[in-house]
Design brief:
Its EC number is 3.5.1.88. The chain has 167 residues and is an alpha+beta fold. It has helices at residues 26-38, 123-136, 147-158, and strands at residues 46-48, 58-63, 66-78, 82-89, 92-102, 104-110, 116-122. It is built from three helices and seven strands.
Length: 167
């Protein structure tokens, strides 16, 4: 297990849809171990594989004492009741913006043995499940912001010292 370095907004891996996991082997187990370890650092609730440079559909989470992972997650249920609250992202550090999400979410996927996994949650866990699944679809939370806030987020990101650029 290893804590892996993060990728930041501007890195193309974060804007590319992730490939489904089709091979369940020791390499996948190592990736999941790294996701599980890396998400345990302070201030972290979820971590998608693209955030550590791996374009596969997998994420880990650590919310309200619940620590786990999902491979090939698909959102299968969202409540019609919404929550509005601050959201941030490890790949867009130092910023948070109010982001509307469903108050309840369920994802279905598999574990490292290709056995079914279902994770459901309210509040912060629901937000995390939606946020991490968005990462696997090549979407950052700032892409969901209203135009004026999105423009401000992009401006702040591009002016930061962590912004990844192919310059």
């Amino acid at each position: 297990m290893a804590v892996r370095p993060l990728r930041y907004f501007g890195d193309p891996v974060l804007k590319s849809p992730s490939a489904p996991v089709t091979v369940f082997d020791d390499k996948l187990r190592s990736l999941v171990d790294d996701l599980m370890e890396t998400v345990t650092l302070p201030g972290r609730a979820g971590l998608a594989a693209p955030q550590i440079g791996v374009g596969l559909r997998a994420f880990s989470y650590l919310v309200d004492g619940q620590h786990g992972y999902v491979i090939n997650p698909e959102i299968v249920e969202l409540s019609t009741t919404e929550q509005d609250g601050p959201e941030g992202c490890l790949s867009v550090p130092g910023m948070n913006f109010p982001t509307r999400r469903a108050k309840f979410a369920t994802v279905r996927g598999v574990d490292v043995d290709n056995e079914p996994v279902v994770v459901s949650g309210h509040g912060e866990l629901a937000r995390c499940l939606q946020h991490e699944t968005d990462h696997l679809d090549g979407m950052l939370y700032i892409d969901r912001l209203p135009a004026d806030q999105r423009k401000e987020a992009f401006r702040l990101a591009r002016g930061s010292d962590w912004f990844w650029s192919a310059r």
